[in-house]
Amino acid sequence: MTVSLGELVDLDRYPIDQPDSPGYQAAVGHARDGLRSVGCAVIKDLVLPDGLTRLGEEIWDRKDTTHFSTQVINPYFHFHHNDEYADDHPMNTFLERSSGFIPGDSWEDTTAMRFLFEHPAVTSFLADCLEIPELYPYADPLAGLTANILDPGQQFTWHFDTNEFAVTVLVEEADEGGLFEYVPAIRSDGDEGFTHIQQVLEGGRTGVHTLDLRPGDLQIFRGRYSLHSVSRVASDSKPRHAAIFAYTEQPDVIGRLERTQQLFGRVLQAHIDAEEQRVRSDALID
Ligand SMILES: O=C(O)CCC(=O)C(=O)O
Ligand SMILES: [Fe+2]
Q1: Has this prediction a pTM greater than 0.85?
Q2: Which of 48, 101, 174, 217 is a good FRET partner for 274, with 20 to 30 A between their CA atoms?
Q3: Where are the domains of the chain?
């Protein structure tokens, strides 16, 4: 089955394939405002209803490949106590992540998911929004293209992403819970922001934004600098399904061995090779 960009994306409202058009400029301007001010931009109803149906079916068809894992982790995905830090430090504050991922190698080249994730018009539009010269699909064969699955009762606790940017399309929302929350730019290169992070981990709401995201909306997010979470989906709710497109500013970035094992329950040879030859863009804690 083939698909075209116009079948998936509302190109009338958002002509992402026509960079010189007023509609394109308006969408980029709006996204830049959000990204500059709070590190987050939402493009409402970017995906058309039929596109959403198709993404929804692709996720349900592959849901049995979801790797679910419950872990008690700190915001950097560590799960061991670190004696160099106090007990009430973010490094030693462990909370529940109980969601699952449909991994990158579940999405064949013919899927609408992969088509959107890798489409040059999508990547260059996103780069424009993020005000960077180039954007590369995260080269990790498992973590690059995923669906994040939160079944009833599950939550994705406060954390930072390894990759600089993430793009999310909410495909199916929970009836209750499953809300995306974030604290913009709580850390930066050279400042880990531990004090504020600890307040949030302990339930503090200072600086916490709750996103009003609906199915079909596309969210652009700087997840490496903004602490974020998805709140618990109610036990009697529908599941929450979100497509996650991960991108990097540099090509050929691959996730760490340990985190890959944690999130996907396995690693590929590419992860083992990359561990020996790391390509990193900053020195923040992973
Ligand atoms: O499902 C979402 O909206 C975000 C999930 C997330 O933060 C992640 O996959 O790292
Ligand atoms: Fe994240």
Answers
A1: yes
A2: 101
A3: 5-276
